[in-house]
Amino acid sequence: MGTVTAPPGRARRELTLAVAGAALAGGLALSVGGQTWITATLRRPAPLPPTTTELTGGTLAPLVPAGGLLLLAAAVALLAVRGAGRVAVGLLVAVAGGVLGWSGMRALLGDADVAAAAVVGTGSPGRELTAELHAAWPVLALLAGVLAVLAGLLTVLRGRGWPGMGRRYERTPSSGEPVPARPRTDEDRAVDAWRALDRGEDPTDPGGREP
């Protein structure tokens, strides 16, 4: 079966949606990856004061900022490739979105104390670690993942029929008919005369004129 091609206007809108979705998801992932997801407080034996550590999304889930960079690159690639290459990029976008969603979901459903202890540690006995989860940022990572998955699936299902970057500037192949020559203008004749003078020829000599 051949690929069903959408009307040009609809195809361009779908391409715009996919590129915007991947770019927005990538930018959102980079943003939330730099925010504080967990604030860990380590209480130490007296008279030592407690210490507080802010753990960012990039520390707790390194795949979040990495997925953001990948999605931004994929948004550009969607414009540059066509056909099977675009479908492959769509699959990559969907996979990156799944990783983002899984990272956000794991932070929301997991134990914040355990996650903080894995990074900060508790050190010697007598120390107590408590962690506060800032749920807004993992939720945004989850939403970025969902958006990327939707953009990737749209690309996989519809991307083969989308136009490529610069297609409007491509020359349509002819049917074998010769391309008619452009009519010569007075400016063309003046340029030919100057070229003849540079070659040491007389531009007024009929035998030296170019046809």
From TrEMBL:
The keyword Transmembrane helix applies. Keywords: Membrane, Transmembrane, Transmembrane helix. It holds the Pfam family Trp_oprn_chp. Residues 183-211 have a biased composition (Basic and acidic residues). Residues 165-211 are annotated as: Disordered. It comes from the Bacteria. The chain crosses the membrane at residues 55-80, 87-105, 135-157. This is Trp region conserved hypothetical membrane protein. It comes from Geodermatophilus sabuli. The lineage of its organism: Bacteria, Bacillati, Actinomycetota, Actinomycetes, Geodermatophilales.
